[in-house]
Design goal:
Strand order of the largest sheet: 1-2-3-4-5-6-7
CATH topology of the largest domain: Metallo-beta-lactamase, Chain A
CATH architecture of the largest domain: 4-Layer Sandwich
Shape: globular
CATH class of the largest domain: Alpha Beta
Number of domains: 3
Helix content: 10-25%
Distance between the termini: 47 Å
Strand content: 25-35%
Structural class: alpha+beta
Largest sheet: 7 strands, mixed
Number of helices: 14
Radius of gyration: 26 Å
CATH superfamily of the largest domain: Ribonuclease Z/Hydroxyacylglutathione hydrolase-like
Amino acid sequence: MSIVAQLDKGGKMTGIRELLPGIFVVDDICNVYLIRAADAVIAIDFGSGRAPDFLEEIRATHIDWVLHTHFHRDCCQGDRLAIEHGAKIAVPAAERKYFDQAEEFWKKTKLFPYHSVYSDRNCSTWNIHVNHDLNHGDVLRWRGIDIRAVETPGHTRGSLSYVVELTGKRIAFSGDLIFAPGKTMTYHDMHWNYLTPILSTGSDGTVTEMGMDQGFRPQIESVDRLLRENLDLILPAHGQPISEPASALTQLKDRVSDVYEAVLRKTVHTREPTPQWVMPHLIYLGNTSFGILGDNGKLFLLDYSYGNDDMIERGREEFGFGEIEIAYPTHFHPDHGGFKELLDEEPFEVWADSHVVDLLENPKRYKLPGLNPDPVKVDRALGEMEDFDWGGHHFTSFHFPCHTHYASGLLVELDGKRVLFCGDNVNLVQGRKLQGSFVPASRASIRKGFLPSAAKMIALRPDVLIAAHGRGAAYDVDGRMLASFGEWVRKLERALENLVGLPDYEWGIDREWVSIEPYISEGVRGEPLPLTVTVANHLPGRQEARVSLVAGKGWSVSPNEATLEIAGQGRMGAAFTLMPGTELSSGRHVVTASVEFAGRSWGEVAECVVDLK
């Protein structure tokens, strides 16, 4: 039964069912497939570990092997139980480190700040003993059955599918490569690189590729690889059996291509990124920074990147502006809100949209790429559509959640024009059209972010648009050009609706539908730590979520479990108190949140880190 159908029927987990003679599926946090030969079974993935409960029912006594398709926790969370039952563990060779070196990964991986959006933090929090690893083409021969590994990256970089001939059929256990015909369960797992794919054409005609290290091409290549297998059946890690593999895979390939075409940005840069006049009262100061000159000769600074202080000084010498009086970041990324080093050199006030404030002041609270390494105190939090005057100019600050939910825009009446500073939310692409940068890991939303922002931009009626990474270019815009942004957003939305298999496509782009805050805590043994687990409900009706923290031996948690009644399309948090025992070692500890939502267990969906002193 598919997740969509399961949720429609109330979501309750079932037990085990026979798909073909000798092939069974256990309903768990992922599909756990069992192949039986005599009194033994081999498992494909292991979920939370329910499979041993059903061995007697299928006339088996033990599990010989567990073969993992990839490293995500929903596939291996229950491996302790498999090992206790004597099972050997086989994993993709390219992902072995996420199994038997998981604890080392958590000790050494850079948690703050970071820019990677790859899903490697969705790995086990403890070392899983590995007996064997498999590369593309390797064959595991078990009780007269040949199980061949086929590399199928996309959902992760090292994913494997397992192809076997049983009961006269060629069957692929495909992991999370495919969820249903033409569908993947999520989109965000395919987004490996922070940058969305960019083809940037310079003034000399040279085309530069950026952000191409994504899962799109590998996913398409993996689909082609399985198409060449001439399969009769696909058994995915989530979803129901796929009985017409060729059409299902072909449709998936087309839909992945559609999303890739939607997110690909074909930009044009015709200016050198050096300080220069843009308008009589506007200076481009290099990188992402712009300065508005006030009547008093002082500067209103928009965005600032670490290491840009030399360009600020160069601009001051060349253009003759005085002290910086106010600085405004369009969002929290260090190439926009990295004011700390500049504040160490000269005093000024920082004003920011209210959605951005806490990320600047308390960055370790959040699991987000591109957070500032140094907190920045905000002197004034600006509300939605808040107006203010400075230096003879009129300003309007507003929430502009595209590139990230925590982003803003600034409309300034400057030199007789309405100038919109849009940060990283909007970019000029070929054909004088506007397009955005869609980064799911930055908690970007189409329905609650891009679409209302597109409408707001039209309502603001700017004459000039300035993108932070446009090398100082000011684009004259008209109604048609502004409308092109909304047209692009709707194109992306249609592509995502077609691709994502979860009941609402927003669920499939929300990597942090369950989150723990603060993400990084500093704790002292014997002293309580407050944590909040927030769950998003992307379904239309009210849903119940049951949440518990998994902290391990030596920790106590209160309450043991929290129940949330979450409104449709809403979010709600549950408060917990975590107490580290005095016997715990100092250093980094990982705590996870186990979630039951809409009547189904989703396993340890989210994690946070506690550094004990």
